[in-house]
Amino acid sequence: MTAGDRRAARAVPPSRPRRPYRRWTRDRVERTALRLLRPLVIAALLLATAFPFYYMVVLSLRDVQALILDPGALFVPPDEITLDTYRQVLTPEEEGGQGFVGFIRNSVIVSVAAVALTLLISIPGAYAVARLRFLGRRQVHFLFLAVYLFPPIVLAIPLFVLFSLLGLRGSLPGLALVYISQTLPVTVYMLRNYFETVPRSVEEAAAIDGCGPLATIWRVTLPLSRPALMATGLYVFMIAWNEFLFALLFLVEDRDRWTVSLGLSQLAGAIEVPTTVLMAGSVVLTLPIVIVFFACERLMTGGLTMGAEKG
Amino acid sequence: MRRGRGRTLRQREARTGLALISPTFVVTLVVVVLPLLWAIMLAFQEARLINIRYTGMFGRYSLDNFRYVLGEPGFWSGLAVTLVYTVAGTFLSIALGLVAALALAGPLRGRTLVRASVLLPYVAPVVAAAFVWQVMLSPQYGIANELGVRLLGWDRPIGFLTQAKGELLGVTVPVALLTVIAFEAWRYFPFAFLFLLARLQAVPRELHEAALVDGATPLQRFRYVTLPQLSRVIALLAVLRFVFTFNKFDDVYLLTGGGAGTEMVSIRVYNLLTARDDIGASAAQAVVLALVLVLFLGVYLRFFAGPERSAE
């Protein structure tokens, strides 16, 4: 028991005299109420979180005329289902579609590049913070503050100017670079926490066998840290795939470079695109990240909240 | 010792450490710290995208941008809106996250599925989530208004995202602002939920058993056992969510475009930058925004997180 636990235990009020013959004690009322309340709360949560996405899919399968005639319909009659919306979203612009396949390609390029580069940079950094004593080790967390305290919009202004001057505006690598800077502090933190759980003795054994620091990381630490690497990679992928502000600022002028998020938001501005097609685009944008996330849900949530137990 | 001649083991360790962390430092320096400093310098200069090449580091510095930005009434109302949005959004998302964590902590059939569903709003891209809300809340074909008019007997559809003011039980309420706050709470409560659930599952079982023996009712156990255990995570979440929400741009921009009384400071910054091409003024406004945030965090850490820290 830690000091905090003991304090909490002591804070429980002393037991009151028991009245075994009274049927409706406060305890019983509360238990019954909570037992009834819990399924209601869970149902409400499910409805609030899943319904919008269900509705998104329903709309994407309908014809826009049908939507305007009957906006309240919660499911599509099988004979009304149309995949025309998806065809329209995915076919290239030259053939009269919206060209989402190209946007998906851009999003994949940026996201995968961001994941690879973030891992490449943050692994040595996290290892250093976890294992090595050096001047400034304790100050590393100021990086977090620097990145998070300042609104992205503050950083966006000079980066916008800088990228304009360098001709990097409208370039996907430039965008990936911005994403790396946004994710680095968190990934260093997540990986550090995991590296600290790798037994020191194994690494020392490798060092005695003649491995330098990089070889030790490569041969010992990384193979033992696969779950943490996956979690970190997914986290970066999610951030990069979902990002909107920087994509909007840097890529908006060049349609060929749009990411899916940007493409969808730009479509919404165009009046001639029906709502149902927008919803099909939303499904196309949402589905990949949801699949990736839930395929590795345990890893992800474990990685994100790592260290939360310590507060 | 081939390379480290004359140095102690400790010194070599320090050198390796610095070498390994330096890529992280360099990237952060180039893409975060230097731009930040540049933003501050731009805030004191008259800079537009056309003349930016000629505004050197030692151009003419003045307070004109700040005078201009702070002199606009829109800035102060924007700041007020940002604060209301941030405080309400932070509070609601943590409260909802707590309710969800408590409800889903125990054994439950189909738990994986339920948890997956609860995490959806957080995982989904903001653009998609904002669009579905727009469609659902649309006065023309939105399902919310359809149900409201048909089942709840509303006189006419409500423009949830386009109406600045409306009446609720005879009180005037900021409709659009409340809607974007609801969106914020909906989208980010899973974040609080994850952290709180992880912490809940780490509460020692003996504490609850001891409280049971003492005859504590469920609510008393929550108040005196669970809540003290969660207080530190809640404090951490409060800081994180406050910072993230305060800096938020895309959620509100996508939902309302800053209209109907939801023009946050960050949206004003964006408009100054892109619509008016006024880099200096937008930088000045962004710097003021960051300063306000630092101020609030300072006050919070000084007065609320103080004892927590000294207890460490």
From TrEMBL, chain A:
Any GO BP annotation: transmembrane transport
Compartments where found: Cell membrane
Highest taxon above the source species: Bacteria
Chief location of this protein within or outside the cell: membrane
Region (Disordered): 1-20
GO cellular component: plasma membrane
Transmembrane found in the keyword field: yes
UniProtKB keywords: Cell membrane, Membrane, Transmembrane, Transmembrane helix, Transport
Record carries keyword DNA-binding: no
Matches recorded under InterPro entries: BP-dep_ABC_trans_perm, MetI-like, MetI-like_sf
Membrane topology: Multi-pass membrane protein
Database matches in CDD domains: TM_PBP2
Domain ABC transmembrane type-1 stretches: 104-296
Transmembrane segments: 36-57, 108-130, 142-166, 228-251, 271-296
Signal peptide: none
Family according to the record: Belongs to the binding-protein-dependent transport system permease family.
Protein name (database record): Carbohydrate ABC transporter membrane protein 2 (CUT1 family)
Lineage: Bacteria, Bacillati, Actinomycetota, Actinomycetes, Streptosporangiales
TrEMBL record, chain B:
Subcellular location: Cell membrane
Keywords: Cell membrane, Membrane, Transmembrane, Transmembrane helix, Transport
Membrane topology type: Multi-pass membrane protein
One GO location term (cellular component): plasma membrane
Database matches in PROSITE patterns: ABC_TM1
Domain ABC transmembrane type-1 intervals: 79-300
InterPro entries per UniProt: MetI-like, MetI-like_sf, UgpAE/MalFG_permease
Residues annotated as transmembrane: 20-44, 75-104, 116-136, 175-198, 230-247, 279-301
Secretion signal, residue range per the UniProt entry: none
GO biological process: transmembrane transport
Similarity comment text for this entry: Belongs to the binding-protein-dependent transport system permease family.
Name this polypeptide is given: Carbohydrate ABC transporter membrane protein 1 (CUT1 family)
Organism of provenance: Thermopolyspora flexuosa
Organism classification: Bacteria, Bacillati, Actinomycetota, Actinomycetes, Streptosporangiales
